[in-house]
Amino acid sequence: MIGMFGDKLILVRDGKEVESLKGSVQKEKIYITLPQQVIEEGDVLKRKILNSEEFFLVKSSYYQQGLRGIPSHYSLEVKKIKSLDEVNLEDKQRITTQIVNIHTLNAQNSQIGNGNTINIYNTKIDNQLNELIEEIKKQSFSKDEEKEYLEIVEEIKEQLQKEIPKKSIVKTLLGTLPALGNIASIGSMIVALLG
Fold first, then answer.
1. How far apart (Å, rounded) are the C-alpha atoms in residues 105 and 80?
2. Residue 109, Ramachandran bin (φ over 0: left; ψ between -120 and 50: alpha; else beta)
3. What are 2-34's pLDDT values in tens digits?
């Protein structure tokens, strides 16, 4: 594992360099040791090579708990782009939407702009909850255990949809789930997304 995270990268958001990172660049994946910021879909990573730069658009981001000598890290699915200008309008809109979702986690039927009413729900957390459900179903639990764990996930969803969700309750509920497969790492990502 020595040197696994030897590539030097820079996290770029809204055209600004946010944080220096260490990682491992692969063909369509990048592994990043724990950054100060949550790395999200739509972020861009920059790597300087020789006399030029490479840019990677983050398509999806997964937190993975460390295990047997491998440190905790993010596993990112990326798309190589030629420059920051190549982040097309659709990607920019997705980036803007993601920022709105994160900063308005509890905004239901919010009013934005010229009086339009929209219903916002954090799709990143929703995706993680769906992954959590799938991960629970993949495990070889008894029918009763599986039902109990899925009910806990439903309780977490209900808590997150409250006007002011309590992070401590979400953490406690996540802590009651077994630490098998990727269940614990998905739970950690949900807590990180809550801020």
1. 30
2. left
3. 356 678 888 888 778 888 888 888 888 988 887
Instruction: Write the Ramachandran bin of 126: left for phi over 0, alpha for psi from -120 to 50, otherwise beta.
Output: alpha
pTM above 0.70, yes or no: no
> Quick check: is 62 in a domain?
yes
Structure token digits, residue 57: 């658009």
Q: Give the length of the chain.
A: 195
Number of domains the chain contains:
2
Domain extent at residue 87: 7-100
- Report which residue type is found at 30: I
Q: What is the residue whose two structure tokens read 């808590």?
A: 159
Cβ atoms within 10 A of the Cβ of 125, count?
Answer: 21
Tokens representing 69 are: 């000598």
